[in-house]
Design goal:
2 copies of one chain form a homodimer.
Chain A lengths: L1 E7 L12 E7 L7 E10 L3 H5 L14 E8 L9 E4 L6 E5 L4 E3 L15 H13 L8 E3 L7 H10 L5 E5 L2 H9 L5 E4 L5 H8 L4 E5 L5 H8 L1 E9 L21 H5 L2 E4 L9 H14 L6 E5 L4 H7 L8 E5 L7
Parallel strand pairs in A: 8-9, 8-11, 9-10, 11-12, 12-13, 14-15
Antiparallel strand pairs in A: 1-2, 3-4, 3-6, 3-15, 4-5, 5-7
Helix pairs in contact in A: 2-3
């Protein structure tokens, strides 16, 4: 069948521009043994894709990324026509996917689009990072940086839902901080650009924090180490503050000795660590979404021809919450 | 009775100097109910005491630390005159100790002085830090800094005894490095002052290290993070390099992001975490000492008046192995 896909025409120099992309007509074949033909409904655009355009993806390459679609025909056992699947072949309308790389998703549990956000990798990252790597116990005090983001906002809400005594979040603007406390139910929020992290932690959790969900590095990590309670845990999810360091690396925390007498653990992780927890995660998260306990934002562009614009918008702050493109009508809406 | 003790005269600014200490005459009373009067034979000087001089101990305070002594008279059931005990009231010749805070030690099992070293807290620190906090599994590759010291030398030897594929140690002089490989049986040693830690780790363990037993911080911690294998562990035992930093703290590792995709754990600990392992530890360690598998050094100063000099020597590398002061003749020698 005839379909459309977005290819990289040239590598961006600095911020991506429209001329870096090309909408092309492609011929999509029939699924072979163990394959499925999928009509994509939603695709995700994410900042990490900019990095891939530096080396992995060159001129003339098709782009890829997370997507949710409907199975049109199936050559795989266990997946049938009409199923909805999550897979890694976005930036195109139709695609043949190896069934082994796709997962069936249930629109009865949560909206289809949420499987690219809170019900997908960012959600599982938050869930596993807090509950598995962070070994969260009911009632403990939690601090999360980059708290208005796709991962951080879920971390804080899960802690709140699970009875956290104090949930502190930091973000980079007063508007985002207001969202933390007013919408996501954090007990305390602060703007890390205009306030002292240690002071804010003392204000938000006078007796110290048990878990710091680490997203950014820098002064907030130092403050967290200082204000950590005995046997505290620091799941290290990523250090956005350091991503652009290049050769001159940002100094690390000067107070790692804080870990010693407090028996504090720092532990790095990525979402692949939580594969075995995915079933429970989907059950829990679906329930919290349906009950309204857990909230999230999406910014949705319409049509594959607008995918490059949506991607470029990431670097202009055009999105509020997860940035998505709708490639076909969502039959579950 | 009349006795002598060392008091803190003033708080050190940076490295401790002689003028910070004072030898004073003290009156020591009789032991009451549940107490014992002890003549100290050996006392320990340790880097952690420098930290206590910042807040816990002020001018005019008596100092404290691990000691082994002989019971002169006892008001406690279970401990009798002539017993040897380990306790926490060093820096003085005679002292009345609550029996509950003292433990009887057996000079037939190992030399008295070793109970302040390989059979005591440093030994248990090494044993628990490697096997419990570090979760060492037979055959894994281990790197330990400050490897010629009281803790480090035991870490490396336990790893070697337990079949470690590669045991790498670093020390601050070529003589100490030679001792690591020639006497303690490390597979590779390097002088951290004259060589590049990362290069040396690559040389000593081409496929990476599973455990870095962290004693010093600084560039060796960075090198270890870079050369860590997936699921590696970094028990953080102490950071001698930072003890004298004062207000200008040493920058921490700039590459904590290395933990993320390698699922690396850093975990602080002190010896009190291993109380329940002490029985097994004494059995294992006693056996290794008697079989000659495990070797240790002691640097012993004579006389309480030399205790401050011995302590200051810790920060100048004056000790080879455990730094002790002999306060009275050892009747078991």
């Amino acid at each position: 069948m005839q379909s459309k896909a977005v290819y990289l025409k040239s590598r961006p120099a600095g911020k991506p521009v429209a001329a870096n992309f090309e909408l092309v007509d492609v011929e999509v074949g029939e699924p072979g043994e163990g394959q499925i033909l999928v009509e994509n409904i939603y695709m995700s655009v994410d900042p990490y894709m900019r990095g891939r355009m530096r080396e992995a993806w060159g001129p003339g390459d098709s782009l890829m990324g997370g997507a949710i679609g409907r199975v049109i025909s199936s050559g795989a056992s266990g997946i049938k026509e009409g199923d909805f699947v999550s897979h890694g072949m976005g930036w195109r309308q139709h695609v043949v996917v190896d069934a082994a790389t796709a997962g069936v998703v249930d629109p009865a549990l949560a909206p289809l689009s949420s499987y690219l956000g809170v019900m997908g990798m960012p959600g599982l990252t938050a869930y596993g990072g807090l509950l598995v790597t962070g070994e969260y116990k009911d009632g403990e005090s939690v601090f999360v940086s980059a708290a208005s983001g796709a991962v951080g906002s879920v971390v804080g809400q899960i802690a709140r839902i699970k009875g956290s005594r104090e949930v502190i979040g930091s973000a980079g603007s007063d508007a985002k901080v207001a969202m933390l406390t007013e919408e996501f139910g954090f007990s305390h929020g602060f703007n890390y650009k205009t306030s002292d992290p240690l002071e804010e932690l003392r204000k938000g959790a006078p007796k110290g924090i048990d878990i710091y969900f680490e997203n950014v590095g820098g002064p907030q990590l130092e403050a967290a180490l200082t204000h950590m309670r005995p046997y505290g845990r620091i799941p290290i999810c990523g250090m956005i503050a350091h991503y652009n360091d290049g050769d001159s690396m940002t100094p690390g925390p000067r107070n790692l000795t804080e870990t010693i007498y407090k028996f504090v653990t720092l532990r790095g992780f990525v979402v692949s660590a939580f594969a075995e927890h995915e079933g429970q995660f989907r059950q829990d998260m679906g329930g919290w979404i349906r009950s309204g306990d857990l909230k999230y934002h999406e910014t949705i562009s319409e049509g594959i021809e607008n995918a490059p614009t949506a991607f470029m918008g990431l670097f202009e702050g055009a999105n509020e919450g997860k940035m998505l493109v709708r490639l076909a009508a969502d039959p579950t809406l």
